[in-house]
Amino acid sequence: MLTKFETKSNRVKGLAFHPKRPWVLSTLHSGSIQLWDYRMGTLIDRFEEHEGPVRGIDFHPTQPLFVSGGDDYKIKIWNYKLRRCLFTLMGHLDYIRTVYFHKEHPWIVSASDDQTVRIWNWQNRSCLAVLTGHNHYVMCASFHPYEDLVVSAALDQTLRVWDLSALRQKSVKAPGGPGSSSGGGGGLEGMSNSMRSQLPAAVNADLFGSSEVTVKYVLEGHSRGVNWAQFHPTLPLIISGADDRLIKLWRMSETKAWEVDVFRGHFNNVSCVMFHPKLDLVISNSEDKTIRVWDLNRRTCLYTFRRDSDRFWILAVHPTLNLIASGHDSGMLVFKLERERPAFNALSDRLIYVKDRYARALDFDNGRDTPMFALAGKQGGASGSGSGLDSMMGDFGGMVSSGGAARPIKARSMSYNAQENAILLNYDAEGGSYELYVVPKGSGSGGENVVEPRRGFGSCAVFVGRNRFASLEQGKTVVVRDLHNEVTKRVPVMLPGADMMYVAGPGFVLLRNEETVAMQDLQQRKITAQVSASSVRYVVWSEDMNRVALLGKHVLLICSRKLEVLATIHESIRIKSAAWDDSGVLLYTTLNHLKYCLPNGDNGIVSTLENTIYITRVRGPAVCYLDREGNPGLMPIDPSEFTFKLLLLRKRYDDVKRMIAESRLPGQAIIAYLQKKGFPEVALHFVRDETTRFALAVDSGSVEVALESAKVLDRPDAWNRLADVALAQGNVDVVEMCLQKTKSLEKLAFLYVLLGDFERLRKMAQIAENAGNYMAVFQIMMYLGDYEGMTRVLASCAQVPLGKLCARSHGLDELADELVGEEGASIPHAPQQQQLMMPPIPIGASENWPLLQISRGMFKRDPNSQGEFEEPALDYYEDAATFAESERDGFLDDENYVGRKTATAAPVLDPFAKELEQQAATSKAEGGGGGWGDDDFDLDLPVDLPGAAAPSLGAEGDGLEPQEDEYGRVADTETDHSVYYVPPKAGVGIEARWTRSSKLPGELVAAGAFDEAMKLLARQVGACMFGPMKEIMSSVYLGCRGATPASMNTRSNALFVKSALGPDRPYCMLTLPFVKERFSAGAQLFTQGKFSDALAVFAKLLLCIPLVVVGTMEDVNEVKATLGLCREYVMGLLLEQQQRKAKADGNAAAQMQLSALFTHCKLAPAHAQLTLRAAMGAAYSTKNFIFASGFARRLLDSSPKPDLAASARKMIQFCDQNMSNACEIDYDDRRDFVLNMGTLQPLYTGSPRDECPLCAAQYSPEFKSTVCVVCKVAKVGASAEGLRISTVQMR
Asked: Which of 322, 447, 645, 706 is a good FRET partner for 280, with 20 to 30 A between their CA atoms?
């Protein structure tokens, strides 16, 4: 059972699926009605008008309506589009249990606790019939799928089948037609008919009952009340469930109905029972907290699914899909019983798939579909996929297989060997099994071929060679077999927790656990690549095996052959299948969409799907697929959108131009995509709106196009934005025009100051003075250095004292005396130290900046796009202006080509335009006062502004017409610009080269690739905590970098130190001499008794060793030996720390045990003697004379110095006379043991243990997956490849 959706809510009493949309209605005991989208898992709407629990619910098959009935005796008709109740039907006198729409007629059938069944016409809102006969609560009533029948079930222990033929005939008769009158008869019958015709239908039914509806059958057999009854969708069968815990099957004929069989197994009241819409199964639920699946033919229980705390109340089956919903005490769940994905394997020319217990082959070229052979078939519990049934265990907490019936199990996956014409089918039954079919090559096609399968146990069998296949056994071993199903090799799985295996080419397999997908080489028995990917379900390789798509439930990863992630796609709806097309685009399907994904991760929708499909092959503008029934099909698609994006991605601009000219691409989507990816100039061809066109032109840097749009818009915000863009390009003329249009006097004046155009600045001052803007005039006079003008401006503003001060400060005494102000006004004193403000001196002409004209060369196909599609680069959308020399158009190299006359800003050439429009003429009056709206604003502006008509080359009488190149640009013969400068492509930086060529963790850290280094350390030594290594990594990173000072106001020059071990490898400061030097320093501190300092040195050295880089195998062995010594010293010093703490606490037993264990650390001989002497003293002081004697004897065995030997002999002599220990400790030096660093206790030989993959410290099993306390980096018990510090270890 596959759970698709689950909710948590109050008790669910009613459920209904929408026939078309992915919706399900649930009614709650709290009185609420919830509308859910089970695909998205979201609550769409909530309807709350009922008072009390709502038990009945149903969707109309065609209208946007649904009906509900509740304990408030009301039937409500709702419109889910209007999100409100349309009307209410009243008539029942007690709780309403169920309500259902008729599929054809505007009828509703309702069952109630008032012991009646009513049929309503929801169009005229009347009650057509009241069905009486039950003498207890009517729990259920429903229409027959295609006959005029109603079945009802009641607590009076009976089922009743009602005939609606007369009611249907009456309802379809025309008013006044034949049969509308009584047609004869008299007396009481005529009087009765006359009275009935005069009463409303509802009153008529209540008083006289329903003569149009008669009881056809009364089914008795249950010993207690019946809770549910339902017709079979196609057969004359009825299923019922009752409080007697039995499910009964009934058969009908034209004249009678009888009991066929009984389903026994529930332990409490059967709440609901349904026929499966597609399979010969019966699904029931009960108050015994179980859902049971029954075989309709064999009448046996196949599976039981149990929840621990929830009773089940209601079931609903989807009318067309394989979906079932069940309501329980704490919510509902939507599930299906089998996995519907067919097993298939697509090749380049054909499709091999399984359908109806046959292996079939579909030829993609001619569409011929032929059966290959009949499958022997696995036997299991339910029709369809056993995997679907098994997976319910995690959702319900328990599953019981009842055995009994044997039904064919659907294959979960397939692997096909084209060379040997062999097929592997994988099943989930029996914990994982497979079937191998080898079809003789000489046998013809057809279902009559008999091929005996070779079976075996093991999940995920895939072909790994021409005559070899592999299967995964218990997640620990990959078993390789030949085509005779005989084992040839067993390879241990290198990925911990692997539960699935996929094909990955000859000699390789992909392994998956909950968090990782790894590629394992079966020959070398190692992991060659891995990627973090959770819950991968399917793997789809490209035809050349260079790219792979990893499909999860809601995530899709595109990776290279080395499992480098190229793109990641997240979907809110389940991903179902995927296939690569010939151009390298991945097409994939969700439940309701066909989508595409480009190699760089850009994705979009190709089409909407009515039904879920599984893509098998993409062939041009069509997709080959299999539907859920296993039927092959061909669906045409429109590949224009992703083809256009792919061509643009691969820089095939000639094909892009052709698509623009010939195709109608979706405008808004393409515009947004082009603008996002840095091609706004291309997007200009899809835009007619001037506002959008202006924005795109500004983004693309096309000043001329933006200027034309700004003239049309003529808005201040457009002029201001264009001024900023033009100023960034140094297009002074356009900046000047924009500032004139917006009348920005201050900005325009400052522009003239920057340009040194003092003549126009004086005219600006005159215009400002005429406008009465004295502040602007004073500022301009300051820019000009006109101090006399500044004085006169101050005087004209009635600031005579300030004017006199300004004049005297600049030596204009005569002008100061001429100023006459108010009497008594004080004149400020001028400061003694003054410095004259001089106007700036222009160093260049006031003209546009010269820009390099760069050819984009987009009419020729990029040479890099030939042949196979290359791996995604760091930046697919690099600026087209920086393309290589080979992409330039041929005319650029022509010696006769001439450039522009003036050094104005080079326009950004539009490669897709056939002809660039001529620049619009801008008159001198527009540049003068007219542009400002002020006749006094008369500046002598040049006429050759951008947008003005280009001057004729024949203006001086040479008679030559202007020449145009193929882009429509006017050329001049005076200046030779025949050589264009094309900047070269940016090369790969030294750090990128270091990262690419580095294979060791230390080199990757030196290159700055910290993420890659940490991943490599995790794989090699099980590292999981990198915080302690941060300082060391920073030192290694900085150790190969330097800087030299540069000239003033320039950045320093970076220096990168390369390694002598090979080209493009960084220098690593952690070398063998460094390791030796630091170890000697730690040993010296240990000898001096500075244990804290020694521990810090050894611990840091232990963290440095994984980043060490050496050149020879001898150096590798020496570094590994040092690593072992560091581990022993760190362990001993940790024991010494705890010993001191125990001594301070007065814990003699702990002190004695820690001292004894310290002596078993494998230290240097001199240091080992020191530990024995200290342990001997600690044992003597704590009166553990037996231990003291043992330590003294071990000390004598180590050949100590004479004075130390004499002390040991004295200790032995004394202790032999007092053979006793004051403390009982866990220490026996006669047995071999290692130190358990998790508990600091001995771990004797034979005890289970785990070790740290980095430092090899030993731990008991309970410390597995914890961080090692010695190195503080690695995870205890982690699977690791081993420490690698030299490239010679990889050969």
From this structure: 447
